[in-house]
Amino acid sequence: MSDAVRVVWDDALTSYDFGPQHPLAPVRVELTMALARELGVLDAVELVGCAPAEDDELGLVHERHYIDAVKRVSKTGRPDLNAGLGTPDNPAFVGVHEASALVAGATLAAARAVWLGEAEHAINVAGGLHHAMPARASGFCVYNDPGLAIAWLLEQGASKVAYVDVDVHHGDGVQAMFYDDPRVLTISLHESPRTLFPGTGYPEETGIAGSAVNVALPAGCGDQGWLRAFHAVVPPLLREFDAQVLVSQQGCDSHALDPLANLMLSLDGQRTAYQELHKLAHETAGGRWVATGGGGYELVQVVPRAWTHLIAEAAGVPVDPETRTPDEWRAFVRQRTGEVPPLTMTDGRNPEYRDIAQGFDPADPIDRAIMATRNAVFPLHGLDPMP
């Protein structure tokens, strides 16, 4: 079992709410915490509250004029399109600053706990708002909490921070914030920008000396191909980079049921990725792991189960995939959503992959994506791109 593990939670985190028709419905994190609680997963962690990020803290990654603009929108609810608020992706609403600052503060609390040694791993499932830019809201994201955590760690004296983003969308905001900073390695595995927002994340986007790494996977990629790509790129780079802290964005919108994207992972494939990141945190970052949520728009079938597995894995008490979801939780799901809840903690898959070291097929689009990334960045880290 890992040492002390913290989960940062406050019921007010559900106030990050763009309205009843918006895909990023806060009920997804409410159901996640309820499921983790009913399964006893939260008994194995330290559950702590949080405070909103202060303006000076937000200013580590966001322009002051942008923070001021968000505050003005927050008071009136009137759009500010220059700030990216008032669009279909990022509707303006009264209280948007307070809600967004609380999400940022929760991830900052997680980073603080890990850096100060109060916890080995810390998680904010309400976080992962990786599209927010220094002076603009984007892609459902107002303040960039993973970016803030990384910037805060650097300010405290961290010499190297690694960031791994497994959301189906490119982690463009975090990449942009640290693109020219060799102290930060950003790795994003995502659906190809040719078919999905935000249209960035090509392998050729390499930052300074390979500080940015992008694995752009073809639509339709499932467990086997995704895990093949992950293992071909992420472990060698993390081992070479030797970070003091691993920060991860655990968006689960790579699932086959997600309505906004086109990858085909199962819950079991995602759970396998959590296991691998947990191992890599111990192997390459002294066990220091800050994990956030992220995207995920199948609110009942996917998000609660995926992130309950994430918390359980981090806590060292993994949930048997065959475990039935508790009756109390299923009743709560019906009450809150009117939907039919899943019966077990698995999709019934047994994810396996073939290692790239066994050879690659230039006719396979997944292998081509893998080799495009390795060819672009491995030499910049002194690694041989060939398997």
TrEMBL record:
The keyword Transport does not apply. Residues 22-312 form the Histone deacetylase domain. The keyword Manganese does not apply. Belongs to the histone deacetylase family. It comes from the Bacteria. GO terms for biological process: acetoin catabolic process; epigenetic regulation of gene expression. Pathway: Ketone degradation; acetoin degradation. SUPFAM superfamilies: Arginase/deacetylase (SSF52768). It comes from Acrocarpospora macrocephala. GO terms for molecular function: histone deacetylase activity. This is Acetoin utilization protein AcuC. Keywords: Acetoin catabolism.
